[in-house]
Specification:
Elements lengths: L2 E9 L3 H8 L2 H8 L5 E6 L7 E8 L7 H6 L5 E8 L7 E10 L3 E12 L2 E12 L5 H32 L1
Antiparallel strand pairs: 1-7, 2-3, 3-4, 4-5, 5-6, 6-7
């Protein structure tokens, strides 16, 4: 059984600027600079103004919740692919897929980037499923929380990246 979720990530950056950054190779390379256990692959299969970001990261043992460590078969490697489309007016849509090795899990869903009075926001709607007997249902909310934290970390990075670009 899967768990559905939705949340928004607010930005102080206008939609056009945020979309430009989300679809820029140099922004993502900066984001992953120094990440020793991560890989990043970038492509633009939809042409200009689009991007496919494929990321993998090996989880550090001290960051893995105890309930997950107990059922891990081997190293926990997280894999995520985001596909962002071009802006259509003031809206951009995207989709994401994520999975793990070491424990069987899948996450997928959609993004909608839209303007707000303060800047913009990304609405996230998706589902997560962890296929582990007895404890999968207990791990699914942890996976959702982790994804929310990752997207908030990306928000912080992109807002700081914009500040650095403005002063450069």
């Amino acid at each position: 059984m899967s768990r559905k979720f939705s949340f928004t990530v607010p930005y102080t950056v206008p939609v056009e600027d945020l979309h430009r950054a989300l679809t820029a190779d140099d922004a993502w390379r900066s984001r992953f600079a120094g990440a020793e256990t991560a890989t990043l692959e970038l492509s633009h299969p939809g042409g200009a103004g689009t991007i496919r970001i494929h990321m993998t990261e090996k989880a550090r043992q001290d960051k893995i919740p105890g309930i997950v460590r107990k059922v891990l078969k081997n190293e926990l490697v997280l894999s995520r692919t985001d596909d962002w489309q071009a802006l259509d007016g003031e809206i951009a849509k995207g989709v994401f897929e994520a999975s793990t090795t070491g424990i069987t899990s899948r996450m997928s869903g959609s993004y909608v980037l839209r303007p707000t009075a303060e800047g913009s926001q990304i609405e996230v709607v998706g589902s997560v499923e962890v296929k582990v007997s007895l404890v999968g249902g207990a791990i699914e909310p942890l996976a959702e929380q982790l994804f929310h934290r990752v997207l908030n970390s990306e928000r912080k990075f992109f807002e700081e990246w914009f500040g650095a670009q403005a002063t450069a």
